[in-house]
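Chain A, query sequence.
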Amino acid sequence: MGRALTALEEKDLDAVENYLTRLAPVKDAIIAPFLVTGRLLGRMAHSLGQSNRAIRFFEEALRFCRNAPYPCELAWTCYDYAPVLLERDRRGDRQKATALLEEALEIAETLRMRPLFGLAVSFRERYHAKLARKPGGLSRRELDVLELLAAGLTNKEIAEQLFISTNTVATHVAHILQKTRSANRTEAANYAIRNHLDGSARDRLENSQFG
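Chain A, predicted structure.
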């Protein structure tokens, strides 16, 4: 597990994949200093782009920590799990990410886990718009269009990506400009970047820390 942690922190994905395969059968274990294997496996799967698998590991880690109970490790698991849900961004993921982050903050405050508390507060401030149910009042489809717009795609390219007409894209863009109070596409793209609503969040989200 120590080698797996090192591989993860060094972003050695070949080694991460190897250790993930070897450690997956030992998902319900805890080692000093209070690191549940499920949390490590979740981080490893996420680094490999396996979001759904990562979520299964994190769910198992949550169950393990709640049953033990291991409140400190539970708090860190909540913190590491939240950005994975936020990145996947399916129905209900934002609400669950918000709840997990609040749980991490509550435990961290109660147990005076200052490093975690600071990280969780900072994360909540950076991603407050994306954690909102409807950031900026934008609909789910408008957020999809905004992400592609911020990536520099034209209306035609966005239409092809989302399997909708260019007229529909144009309507969504007009609504986005109005809701974000942007004068043009460049300002809308800057809004997306400032509020972490663009597609570049993966690298930043992978920087969540281990306890």
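DSSP finds 13 helices and two strands in the chain. The longest helix spans residues 71-88.
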